[in-house]
Amino acid sequence: MRKLYVGIDLGCKTCAGAVRDSKGKLLETYSFPTSAKNLIDFVGKQKGEVRVLVEECELAGWVYRTLLPHVQSVEVSDPKHNAWIARSKRKSDPVDAAKLAELLRGGFYRAVYHPEDEEMANLKIAVQHYDQMTRTTTRLQNQIKARFRQQGIMTTGKGVYGLAGRQKVISLVKSEAIAEMLRQDFRLLDHAQKERAAARRLATKLSGDLPVIKRLKRIPGVGTISACRFVAYVANPHRFNTKGLVSFSRLAVVKKESGESSIGREHLSKEGNGAMKDLSRTVFNGAMRTRRTNGIRDYYQGSLRRTRNETHDQHNRKRVYPASNQVRLALFVLAYNMGNFLRRFALPSKVAHWSLSSIQLKLIKIGAKVISHSRRTIFQMAEVAVSEALFSALLERIRCLAGAPT
Predict the structure, then answer these.
(1) Do 42 and 74 lie in a common domain?
(2) How many domains does the chain contain in total?
(3) CATH of the domain at 26
(4) Summary mean pLDDT of the chain
C-alpha cells in the first residue's frame, strides 16, 4: 500500500489540502469549507496509507481528534519552527498545504502534543480557562493600584481589595469621577474573582477521581488545582525523558558556546509552557510554607547552608549536579589523553607537528558519507581535510600499535 502525505492549512471558513506521494510528487490540491464531514471526506477519498500534518492553532486539537480514527496518523506541527512557510514571499493556502505535506514527508517539523482522549482535552481547556481567569484577576488588581498611584495614594498588600479596605482608600480620592471609576473597577474585580472560583470548581470536577491526582497531592506543596494543572498540561508523562520535562517547564539552562568560548550569559530557556514554570514556583512556595518536614525544604535549606547565597547562581547549579560534572571532567581528561597519544605515537612524520586543535579539526570533527555493502563499509570524506593516503597511513600506524594476537 502506497504512503500518502497530506498537509492541511486550516482556516475558520475554508481549509486547503494537498497530497504528496512517497517520492514527493504533488498529486492533488483541494479547498473545501471547514467542517468535520468535509475533513473526513477529503482524507477518506485518498487511496493508501494516509498521514496528515496541520499547524498548531485553535482548530488543531479538534481536527486532530476528528481525523485520528480515519487515517494512519495525525501530527500537529509548531508553526514557529516552520520557517519555510512563515518566511515565504509566496503565501496562499494551497501553497502552504503543499509545503506542510513535504515537511511531513521529510520529517522536517517539530510536533506539538495533543491528547487523543476527549476527557483529557476538556480538562486541559478547563485548566487553561482557570489560568486565564487568574490572569484577568491579577490584571484588574494591578489596574486598581495603578489608578490609586495616579492620585498620589500608595497602597500595599491585599487589604485594599477587601470591602473595608477599599472604602477607606476610596475616601482619600478627591475627584468623585475617579472614585466612581475605582468603584467600577472593584465591581469588575468582584465578578472576576467569582468566575475564577467557578472555573476552579469546574476544573476540579472534570479531573474526577483520577488516581494520579490523589498521588500527586501527596507531594509537599501540591494541592488539588496544582495537581489538575500538572495532569492537564503534561497529559502523557511517557512522552518526556527527564531533560525533556525540564525543558517543557522552561527550567532548562541555555548555554551558548562557539569554539570552546561562551557566548552571552546563561539563562533559562523561554521555549516550553510558561504555566508549568509558574506551577513549579507555586509548588515550591507551598512546600516551603508547610509545617511538616519535607525533602524539598530540607534540600533548599541545605543548599543555602553550603553556598550562603539565596539566588540560584552558578554555584547552586553546580551543587545540584555534582556527579554529572565529575563525569564530564573525566570524559574531557580521557579525550585529551587519547588525542595526545594519537599525536605522539600514530601521526605520520608529514603531520607530526600538528597540535591537538589541528587534530581535532582535521581528523575528528570531519563529515563523511557512510556507504555499507555486504562485505565492506566505505567512508567518503572530502579530501580538503585529509588526503586518502595520509588517512590510510594513520590507520596503518594505529593498527601496528595493537598487540599481536595470542
Answers:
(1) yes
(2) 4
(3) 3.30.420.10
(4) 85
* pTM confidence score: 0.68
The answer to whether the Cα torsion of 300, 305, 310, 312 is positive or negative is: negative
77 and 159 both lie in a single domain: no
15-29, 102-116, 279-293, 296-310: the lowest-pLDDT one: 296-310
**pLDDT mean over 112-119:** 88
Neighbours of 202 (CB within 10 A): 16
Range of the domain at 193: 118-207
Q: ∠18-20-24 over CA atoms, to 5°? A: 135
Cβ neighbours for 374, distance < 8 A, ≥ 6 positions apart: none
Indicate whether 316 and 336 sit together in one domain.
no
Q: Nearest 10 degrees: CA dihedral of 38, 235, 126, 8?
A: -20
Could you tell me the maximum CA-CA distance found in the chain, to the nearest angstrom? 102
Rounded to an integer, the average pLDDT of 214-220 is 86
Closest among 216, 223, 245, 221 to 233, alpha carbons compared? 245
Q: Would you state the pLDDT for residue 319? A: 44
Residue 261 has pLDDT above 80, yes or no: no
Say whether pLDDT at 320 is over 50: no
For 29, the enclosing helix (H) or strand (E) is: strand 26-33
93 close to 14: Cβ distance less than 8 angstroms = yes
Q: Give the residue from 299, 320, 341 where a domain finishes.
A: 320
Q: Tell me, yes or no, whether 406 lies in a domain.
A: no
- Let me know if residue 213 belongs to a domain: no
Confidence of residue 62 (pLDDT cuts 50, 70, 90): very high
Whose cell is 530540607? That residue is 298
Is residue 233 located within the same domain as residue 138? no
In a domain, 113, yes or no: no
Of the residues 288, 320, 352, the one at which a domain ends: 320
pLDDT at residue 324 greater than cutoff 60: no
Assess if residue 218 is contained within a domain. Answer: no
DSSP letters spanning 181-249: HHHHHHHHHHHHHHHHHHHHHHHHHHHTT-HHHHHHTTSTT--HHHHHHHHHHHS-GGG--HHHHHHHT
**Does 9 score more than 90 pLDDT?**
yes
Contact 140, 45 (CB under 8 A): no
Can you tell me which residue has the cell 589523553? 337
